[in-house]
Fold:
Amino acid sequence: MNKLHVHSLRKHEILRKTLLISLLFRSGKGLKGDFLKMVYASFNPEGNVVQGFPAILFAVSKKTLHSSVHRNRIKRMMREAYRLEKSCLECRVEFPHDGIVHGLLCIAFIYTGRKQTFPNLDAFRVEVRKLLQNMSLS
Structure:
């Protein structure tokens, strides 16, 4: 039971620290897709942060979706899409092309779609994969 599943999203991978979140949105770079926006930044690691795992944040605004049921559904789909597509990101973080240690990588996914119909999981996976591949870690 102690085996770590390849496609798991552990509790310590979720970004919860207010200071890191404010720094991320203040100084992070952004990429925009069809219905997702990704903000990312690399910071110096803190004492109790597990290295090697990016810290992830998922957000859906009340202005975008008024119903909490729909917001929670979109966040669940974003988490699942990231969980399935994070293996391509871990390879890039462990073996950077430029040889520089980047510290803690923080990523925020923000849902920006305003259509009445929601994208399915496959569309989220394609969008997350595209954003993660277009991210420049330097």
